[in-house]
Design brief:
The chain has about 800 residues and is an alpha+beta fold. It has 24 helices and 19 strands. β12 and β13 form a beta hairpin. α10 packs antiparallel against α11.
Length: about 800
């Protein structure tokens, strides 16, 4: 497939451009039909809603608020009333509006603040917020705000109003892409190589986003799905293309033709991308086990975007590589290739030194990493799930302004009143009990209708306050049972609390499901019980630490002012499930990329220390670059102006950073050094029964004794260290394996710690030559029998071995 896409690059490019434009035009023409299917069966708030719908079918919908404030005088003044009342009357006549209650009626005195400067009217729609047409909501907003003038402010708040007060779109995505471009340019040193991952990600995210919009017309997809699809699509799209382009450039530098380098890259890193994309989709699908219908559409949108991002990486990317040819290299690399010929990239510098340092002090590295992750996870102990309210909206939005005005005029609890719904007539004892309950500011009973009575209870604290949650529990467990009536506590605040409770109850099942699936995948990939078990523990540690960071910032308020996102509050109830899905999927990518290189080395040498050292040295740079790109993309969503998006962005950025920079490049290799050969243990009986899954085939087939590549790969290796007479490692030494007749079989360059490994095609006698400037050279006959041969080399300045 890679070869076909490379040779028919213009056809592939036109197909992708046509798909993007076609889906874009179709989505623009059809519009969006996002729906929040928010159902919580068998909860107290759902029973309250059902009774409300039975008693007041025209008023069971979402209730929003129009708030106005005068700078001078009173809202009762004729000049104010003459502007506000006609607007409210017009709103009441709109189709889809059930009722409008204003403060100028006989029962409206309570809707005016004590100082007379702030008043509100309640607009009750016939449907819940997610079902109210956006056009109707926009008409309500425009009609109310047209009544404003100098000295008279008019703002609107409520769930339905939020749907039309969307922050500007595109800024976060653009900033994320620009930040990723900087990282890619530093990593590649080439403008064209930098553009490749970004172009691939844009095509994957664009087709995924437009496809999700079209799917919203045939199934229930929440608006959140579009945001999360963009968030995850940009991250994985750029990362997957980065892995493939890195392998492609390495192949060209080794002297391969660009077409062969592209085919090899897709057949190696491309396979790993397919595997990694599959693990992300499986982790996302794990959300389905929670049975929260609200998340089904999120799974559809995000999974579609990931699938299309993977498809773009394995089809569009080879076509683009065909268009660029050698220009995928930097100018310096192209000049070096022309002047010096092919060369092998080796792990050197900081990556190799760090890898050697982890091998020397695995206990110290592991201890520091564990202490750091544990310290970051401590705030998790005070995690409180809930739903943030409009007090966290951007200060420029009318919903935030209305929230602040209501809190100023009527108290913080007014923004989240509770509804005690009684099946029958409310007793005086219940009303009295509610009024006497600590934490209740006001109680107002609505006349019974159809055998149902609704009592509005206004708390003294804000909707997202922990005291409000305790008040709901007190009403349900003490006040209502003591009154001896059948009643249920509903309202937006109660629904939010019930959603957080249900999410918390189902979270263990969800975590167990995705950990179990990840364990099975890694078990098949690496033929080991210890490697997937270690990965599962590391994933849990990364999740705990990242949620600790979230709690410290958004719940405790540390650094929240710097983000410009309002006041602290609970962690959004939906976030743990969504964030864990993405985290487990993405961390699996890094685990596969890291351990697959270690596993390959282990298969060749059966030397665990070397396998871990070489695997870390050769992959840490790419993993850290990929993680840095994701961190930039995720953090950019703080600029979206959406509190939920900012929370998800910060949480995912923290999770990816901790996973890549601490776990994968420090704790995982340190633990693998401590475990030794146990890393690769698998019971013989299980080994026979497990199917073989080749995540990434061998990149190069070494030549056999006749000089013809052996299709079955090398039977063994020679490996060891190149050092000086003083024991210092020699980096950059050329190590060549020859036949007794002098034909070259393999050639490598020693790493920063002096390590080398050359492939041996078959048992027999060979010549090993080691050369390093200015240390001279040394050659020796080596005999390989039935396994890896360890052969250390000592170089002395000026000494040259002569071998017949």
């Amino acid at each position: 497939m890679a070869r076909w896409c490379y040779r028919h690059r213009l056809v592939v490019l036109l197909l992708w451009v046509g798909a993007l434009l076609g889906l874009g035009v179709s989505a623009s023409g059809a519009g969006t039909n996002y729906a929040e299917v928010f159902s919580l069966p068998d909860t107290d708030s759902k029973r309250a809603y059902d009774l409300m719908e039975k008693a007041f079918p025209e008023r069971a919908g979402d209730t929003d608020t129009v708030v106005w404030k005068v700078d001078e005088g009173s809202v009762r003044d004729g000049s104010v009333r003459s502007r506000i009342q006609p607007a409210l009357t017009e709103i009441g006549r709109m189709e889809g509006v059930g009722a409008v209650t204003d403060p100028y009626g006989a029962q409206g005195a309570a809707q005016i603040s004590e100082d007379g400067r702030i008043a509100y009217a309640q607009v009750t729609f016939a449907e819940q917020a997610d079902a109210v047409p956006k056009g109707l909501v926009q008409d309500v907003v425009d009609t109310a705000q047209d009544a404003a003038r100098d000295g008279l402010r008019v703002e609107l708040g409520g769930q339905a109003i939020t749907r039309v007060q969307e922050p500007p779109t595109g800024t976060a995505e653009l900033v994320g892409i620009l930040a990723a471009a900087v990282v890619l340019f530093v990593a590649f040193g080439s403008l064209f190589a930098m553009l490749l991952p970004i172009v691939v990600a844009v095509f994957g995210v664009g087709t995924g986003m437009f496809g999700t919009q079209l799917l919203s017309h045939v199934t229930d997809v929440p608006e959140l799905a579009s945001l999360l699809s963009t968030l995850i699509g940009l991250g994985v799209g750029i990362d997957y293309a980065l892995f493939i382009v890195t392998r492609h450039r390495r192949g060209i530098l080794r002297g391969a033709d660009p077409e062969e380098a592209a085919v090899t890259a897709l057949n190696t890193s491309g396979r790993a991308v397919l595997f990694a994309g599959g693990t992300v989709c499986i982790a996302l699908a794990g959300m389905l086990v929670t049975n929260l219908r609200f998340l089904d559409g999120v799974v559809i949108g995000t999974t579609l975007t990931v699938v299309l991002s993977v498809l773009a990486a394995v089809t569009l990317l080879p076509a683009l590589l065909g268009l660029l040819g050698h220009r995928v290299l930097s100018r310096r690399q192209r000049r070096g290739l022309a002047a010096e010929g092919p060369r092998t990239e080796t792990a050197s510098g900081l990556a190799a030194r760090w890898s050697a340092g982890v091998q020397r002090r695995p206990r110290s590295v592991a201890a520091v990493a564990v202490v750091l992750m544990a310290a970051l996870a401590v705030p998790l102990l005070s995690l409180r799930l809930g739903t943030v309210d409009q007090g966290n909206d951007d200060a420029s939005m009318t919903t935030r302004k209305a929230y602040d005005l209501l809190a100023e005029g009527f108290g913080p609890g007014f923004n989240g009143p509770l509804q005690v719904v009684v099946d029958g007539e409310a007793s005086d004892g219940l009303v009295t009990g509610l009024e006497e309950t600590e934490g209740v500011a006001r109680v107002a009973a609505v006349p019974p209708a159809n055998g149902v009575t609704v009592i509005q209870v206004v708390p003294t604290t804000s909707p997202q306050a922990e005291e409000t949650d305790r008040l709901i529990d007190t009403l349900r467990e003490e006040v209502i049972p003591r009154a001896g009536v059948e009643a249920h506590v509903g309202g937006v605040t109660a629904v939010s609390k019930d959603f957080a409770t249900v999410t918390g109850e189902r979270l263990p099942l969800f975590i167990g499901t995705i950990i179990g699936l990840g364990f099975l995948l890694l078990l098949l990939a690496f033929r080991s019980l210890v490697v997937p078990l270690t990965a599962a523990v590391m994933n849990l540690l990364a999740a705990a630490a990242s949620f600790g960071v979230l709690v410290a910032i958004f719940q405790w308020g540390y650094g929240l002012d710097l983000l410009g996102l309002g006041q602290e509050g609970p962690i959004a109830s939906f976030l743990p499930i969504i964030m864990l899905s993405l985290l487990f999927g993405l961390s699996m990518d890094y685990q596969v990329f890291l351990v697959s290189r270690m596993h390959e080395e282990w298969v060749h040498t059966r030397d665990n220390a070397r396998a871990v050292r070489v695997g870390l040295a050769e992959t840490s740079r790419v993993i850290n670059s990929a993680a840095l790109i994701m961190v930039c993309v995720f953090l950019a969503f703080v600029l979206s102006g959406d509190y939920g998006a900012a929370m998800a962005g910060v949480g995912l950025a923290a999770a990816v950073a901790l996973d890549a920079f601490i776990l994968r490049t420090a704790l995982v290799p340190a633990v693998m050094h401590l475990l030794g050969k146990s890393n690769w243990w698998l019971p013989a009986g299980l080994e026979k029964r497990l199917p073989h899954l080749a995540v990434e085939p061998k990149e190069d087939a070494p030549p056999g004794p006749t000089g013809v590549p052996d299709p079955h790969g090398p039977s063994s290796v020679v490996h060891g260290f190149v050092r000086t007479a003083d024991g210092e490692p020699v980096e950059g030494a050329a190590v060549t394996l020859l036949t007794p007749g002098g034909r070259r079989l393999d050639r490598v360059i020693s790493l920063a710690d002096g390590a080398y490994i050359v492939s041996v095609p078959a048992p027999g006698a060979y010549l090993l030559v080691v050369t390093a400037t200015p240390l001279g050279s040394r050659a020796a006959h080596v005999t390989v029998v039935d396994g890896p041969l360890v052969h250390d080399v000592e170089l002395t300045p000026g000494e040259v071995d002569a071998v017949n």
